[in-house]
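Ops channel
N.P.: pipeline sanity check, posting one input/output pair.
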């Protein structure tokens, strides 16, 4: 499970993500002919939008300030490499 940051024109968005397989494997499976050689059902990845910290309740957008903005931009750039935004 991971928390991801995405930079959008209207500001930053936060997601909680769980993956059964890496993004690379997910892409390979999506290109494989169906039916997949998997018995039963499997959810490859799940994204849940976050507005508040699930532990302390802080509104996440309040964490982005003039002194932290650059760090969030860097984090969002890193997260682009491992995940496509779900919108």
């Amino acid at each position: 499970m991971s928390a991801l940051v995405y930079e959008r024109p209207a500001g930053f968005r936060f997601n909680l993500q769980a993956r059964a397989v890496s993004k690379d494997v997910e892409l390979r499976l999506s290109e494989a002919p169906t039916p997949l050689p998997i018995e039963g059902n499997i959810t490859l990845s799940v994204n849940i939008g976050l507005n508040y910290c699930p532990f302390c309740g802080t509104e996440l957008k309040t964490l982005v300030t003039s002194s932290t903005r650059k760090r969030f931009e860097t984090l969002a750039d890193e997260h682009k490499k491992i995940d496509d935004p779900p919108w």
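N.P.: looks fine end to end. Residues 2-82 form one domain.
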